[in-house]
Queue: 2 jobs
Job 1
Amino acid sequence: MFLRSMKNPIGIFDSGLGGLTGYRALRKLLPGRTLLYFGDTARVPYGTRSREVIRRYSTQDANFLLSHGVCAILVACGTASSNALDLLEQTFSVPFVGVVAPAAEQAARVAENGNGRVLVLGTSATVATGAYERAIHAIDPKIQVRSAACPLFVPLVENGHTQKGDVAATAIAEEYLLPHADFRPDAVLLGCTHYPLLSEVLSAVLPGPVLISAGEASAKAMASLAAASLPPSDGSASDAFYTSDDPALFRREAARFLGAPPDAPVFHVDIEKY
Amino acid sequence: MFLRSMKNPIGIFDSGLGGLTGYRALRKLLPGRTLLYFGDTARVPYGTRSREVIRRYSTQDANFLLSHGVCAILVACGTASSNALDLLEQTFSVPFVGVVAPAAEQAARVAENGNGRVLVLGTSATVATGAYERAIHAIDPKIQVRSAACPLFVPLVENGHTQKGDVAATAIAEEYLLPHADFRPDAVLLGCTHYPLLSEVLSAVLPGPVLISAGEASAKAMASLAAASLPPSDGSASDAFYTSDDPALFRREAARFLGAPPDAPVFHVDIEKY
């Protein structure tokens, strides 16, 4: 409670490292606010698991961040946002920002200025919920939405298959995207925070549409919330990263998402205890 | 304890579904013995996690099976066998059979009848231990061994990319195997129980070597142990499957490994409690 009353840090969690795309964006938007990031690398990926397991893991993740005194939580994970945000909001009293609504809003804006078509890419668990489609239709029911489950994108990103021209990543992207080429989307909503790392591969396979990063969109929404209604920070950021697996592994892999090794300490968390 | 004294079932565990290749082989070898299979599908994969996490998860898996009265345990997972078998043997009193020693023995036999060369394929965590290499050299130090970490094979198999000619699977197999083509191995040891499903892809990329299934090799070793020193079964098999994620998901996905849907009930287990 001391931490919380002093600094009012914002918590961010993801199944693993993908949420770092949201962290990175929020870090720039809120220079004076401490950010605490938890990546559940001992249980990543979430996107191929059942809704019940995703809800249990997400509750533990939020519970851990709250034990460190955060005043709001960015759910920087498409799978957790689409499967567990309602449960988190019912269970805990701090405000949550997920990736679905902010990214849906950006995509709807692009579609309304184009031909009214959005292609949503997400994990199997995300696409199964239809959450992005519902969120886009809540903004504008005339927008046509198609969704494609992309279960191999997370493992590809985690194993570094992200360069333009990568044969395996291109073959898998073609399998997922080309059935929707004739749909000619105005926007491709990257509904999982890992996917921005595949931007070059995706643009090569399906040139034209605007790519929307769910992580960046949610970071902007969190920055607005902070400006509007979060308790003040103390003006200095003293971030920390937490991982359910090995901190050294996290530090090494995080560089790929951050553009450089993390500029803050990385601690281990036994997440099963939360 | 009632179950145990009545039937003396054998337990099998894996990080997920790959161990079903071992289950399937053991099911044929021991028709009168009950087999209890646990697949940790809520925490799969193990092969990209740290040694410490793998040892903790493996201990919980064994503990769960022992709570159901098994008299021996087949560790049908290359990652768990190479990272945690010593800990399991120290912690528990029942006999364990892992995949490393039996597969190493088969590979050594093939190599001794050829040019003395074995290529080991495994997950990152398995290859990092050097366990297969040590096991082969313990049998015959003259055998040349090379190892290749294949982190994307498990996600490929789990997502059905196993057919000969699959572009993504072939591209990834070429990346992992072709650097070792000039080594001309007599045997390719499939050191992860998922990999036999990729046999056709692997043989197309690197034709020639004998493919050795760690799951099948370990099943033979367990059958020998049962004949030599396990307490008797009651002559009838009444198998059960356990999963840490959704039983319906397990049932659907297991068919790919078993050739047909599981012919036994599938139950949910909250593995974090063990």
Note: The longest strand of chain B covers residues 117-122.
Job 2
Amino acid sequence: MLTRISPSKAEYTEFSTPSDPQPASVASRLIAVYRIASDASAIEGRAEAIALEQSVELPLSAVDSDVVLQDIVGEVRDVRELRAGLFEVRIGLAVSTTGSEPGQLMNMLFGNASILEDVTLADVELPAEMLTHFGGPNHGIDGLRARVGAGNRALTCSALKPQGLRNDDLARLAGQLARGGIDYVKDDHGLADQAYSPFAARVVMCARAVSEANRETGGATRYVPNITGNLDTLRTQLRVVADEGLDTVLVEPMISGLPDFHAITRAFPHIAFIAHPAMSGAARLAPPLLLGKLFRLLGADATIFPNHGGRFSYSPETCRTLANAARDAWGGLRPCMPAPAGGMTLQRVPEILDFYGDRTMLLVGGSLLAAKERLTDEARAFATRVAGYFEPHG
Amino acid sequence: MLTRISPSKAEYTEFSTPSDPQPASVASRLIAVYRIASDASAIEGRAEAIALEQSVELPLSAVDSDVVLQDIVGEVRDVRELRAGLFEVRIGLAVSTTGSEPGQLMNMLFGNASILEDVTLADVELPAEMLTHFGGPNHGIDGLRARVGAGNRALTCSALKPQGLRNDDLARLAGQLARGGIDYVKDDHGLADQAYSPFAARVVMCARAVSEANRETGGATRYVPNITGNLDTLRTQLRVVADEGLDTVLVEPMISGLPDFHAITRAFPHIAFIAHPAMSGAARLAPPLLLGKLFRLLGADATIFPNHGGRFSYSPETCRTLANAARDAWGGLRPCMPAPAGGMTLQRVPEILDFYGDRTMLLVGGSLLAAKERLTDEARAFATRVAGYFEPHG
């Protein structure tokens, strides 16, 4: 009953170059790119079925309206065999069906198709007016670098954890990481608004610990609180953040929902948003598309993703494609900072920098925190190694 | 690099009975149940790694605090081999880490683990106080039956589509389906707030068409608008719905985000919410858990899911488990109405009713609409067949 070939096992290296948005002349359609596991004899029918599923959700014979047949029904644009049993299918979907709303865009791209186990949403190509409408990062790579005075170097990031610590312990860690010169010190994505470390008090205490460290060192470390909950809660927390003079937050778009994520990036344009991949899954929505393109489209200034060789299973090729989708030229959108993470260590810094270059934020959490009382020194070693890596060697 | 066995291929038939919430004495932990594809020799280590990933996200050696070690670190409670290479792992997670918030609950259950391709979230067991806190359906099966005067019979549902039709065409379809005696006439989940059928006008026109049909027939058909967007938009649309005197809506919780979904079920307790599975995927979060249990926990009065033998690939066992998770006794939560859908036809009504019994809402869309000018008759045949099926045969 279930197909055996998972389309997720194919690499996403042949990703459409984001530098080439469709010209306005075909602006009425966006292109959804699916990977479908299928016999060659069945693929044309599968492609047509998905074009209907993702548009009118009816057999063509049940559609009476000429307007719907011409302007709304999905169009199979191309079917290409990637390897035996795996096909790439490009389907044109009417832009008008998205209602210019992020949730409805996802619904059109993958709403019902997400329930088909042998279909992966691999990529999307959007006309220029959709890029302009959604708007992308408010700050992006340049803004994140500028606010910590980093010039053109790679950035460093670390995390406050484990959850379960009280706010004063978290604030102490934040101060130590700031003294070590980490650019962005973020909450663990598990820190929400729990009784043992309530949000509002945590923000104040960690922000002040980082401020104090910055005054001592002359540094510009940013404390990055994790915001959670529904749109009301997200806004309330953003106001706490802004009131404390902070300008960067962490958010999990696949938990908050993409409509709320987009709403807050537009409502708080002075805040930089670092997107965390929690609940993003890996199997059915291509990571370069979701974490690279779509999070960027909706306003992520940086996007955290599991680096190859860590605790997760992304390949180097997936990581490279994801990073480039986040930061390569794409219409008028600002580049989004790729932030490889997930079991990284100081020893891997040179390798990671060679791989991603300097338009990157390196996120090292647990392996710094394991240094315990030597945390500030370990953080400093991390910051120094990253800052000095691309400098000319004497 | 990627494992070859997908845990999603296992059936979810050994689902924990929802009638047995944990007693208060173990209230401080919820149980997350994972399916992990692994070699037998590695599974203990994998289980421990996931217990850490989903709690402190640190190696144990990096955790200093006794409180965190005792109260926060995930505990592997059981590891069981389901078949060669596939294991069920039960992990106790601290209730306190969820902050009693739906998004953070999902984050704790599957945030980072969702990125591990060989791990599926199969089930969850929640202590009684979490059921009480989230609250579940406001109306559920009894309420949905009562508002259409259905007594104890199965319910019928159909959908307005294709998208791209104008509001007057949609309203005409709504009237025809209502005249045929369908209980719930819902928007297609692709109907959002598009230029060609704007929400507010659609609600008014379809509601009035259904009212008029009800006045003629003496029926109690409900029109069910699809609400979309961020929390602000959802609330605005719900106010339009309530102002028009409607009492039931369709919503896509995996697109709106679970925090917003829960927020609106609590803020609009007089409205019944039918949950649509768009973007729910199928592979990594067990459908009975997500569409049955979790949507119910957060307030779905009915839950739509792809029936076996239709356009999607759920097996009969998955469907039965899902339906029972939605409606079996679970603490004090009201039962949620299972609504099998996805390529259903009138011919299948007896089989579907035999399979699901009368605490079911049958959703037939496209195959009714294919009747075109005979839509009212076809709708009446559907309604009559369902209403009469369990009556004693003379």
Note: The longest strand of chain A covers residues 29-37.
